[in-house]
């Protein structure tokens, strides 16, 4: 390649102003960004070139299919990853499932838009820690039609189902800290995790993911490990955006008296009627109300 030739690469990870790219030929390359590209994210496709000084630099971000964002500690939206086909929302039996957070991830997935797979990890702890209320919450997602897999990262149980679901796609693992996202990825890609760990230079242990990183699964899929979170707040959404995250409502679309019905206390609400008739999952609806209220407060 000549010094000015430009090429396309994909961002594997980012440390401040420095990026690791995967080039079109599959090599990993350390790259700098120009200041105006500060929003470049893991999963972005970029145009890059070798500068006359010999260093590689990113020139432009190619148009994105979508970008998953979340607010930082100041409330400013930050890109977690870009160009996502499927969101793997990971929960576990310990730490306890956070159903409200799972619902918020599902709303985010519908907005991206991206497919969803609900992953319940630490299946080995289910008998010890589950209780009927939690099983009922989980069953509601199944009844709505969300795909769910139960995994055990320690012995690889259930991983084949994830691999099948993500064939040919870019998948992102998201969820609470400590549910086992990195462990699942290590099981799927033992060699690569060790190699990327060596590139990290952050001095952090492998089990505290601080930046999003992309891994290739034998050329069949791309996996993104994103930092675990204590919470996943949603930005301010319109009522339509919020309700789009509740596919169980769509069968009643247009049946409420008011077409902007929030399904709270409006008269002749088809959702409330369906709930009273036992045709909708009540726990999801209660959490929908909580989310709606939190939206009006922010
Ligand atoms: N019992 C059991 N423990 C598991 C399983 N998978 C992961 N763990 C343990 O759970 C802990 C957290 O795992 P991680 O893979 O670091 O979790 P993470 O979701 O990547 O956490 P962050 O990097 O903070 O987001 C570790 O001690 C793992 O050994 C599992 O299937 N069963
Ligand atoms: Zn309604």
UniProtKB/TrEMBL annotation:
Co-factor binding comment: Binds 1 zinc ion per subunit.
Enzyme class: hydrolase
Gene Ontology molecular function: GTP binding; GTPase activity; metal ion binding; rRNA binding
All residue ranges annotated as the EngC GTPase domain in the record: 82-230
Keywords from the named record: Cytoplasm, GTP-binding, Hydrolase, Metal-binding, Nucleotide-binding, Ribosome biogenesis, RNA-binding, rRNA-binding, Zinc
Keyword Hydrolase among record annotations: yes
GO CC entries: cytoplasm
Keyword Membrane: no
Gene Ontology biological-process entries: ribosomal small subunit biogenesis
Binding-site residues for GTP, renumbered to this chain: 121-124, 175-183
Occurrences of domain CP-type G (ranges): 65-232
Function text: One of several proteins that assist in the late maturation steps of the functional core of the 30S ribosomal subunit. Helps release RbfA from mature subunits. May play a role in the assembly of ribosomal proteins into the subunit. Circularly permuted GTPase that catalyzes slow GTP hydrolysis, GTPase activity is stimulated by the 30S ribosomal subunit.
Protein name: Small ribosomal subunit biogenesis GTPase RsgA
Gene that this polypeptide is encoded by: rsgA
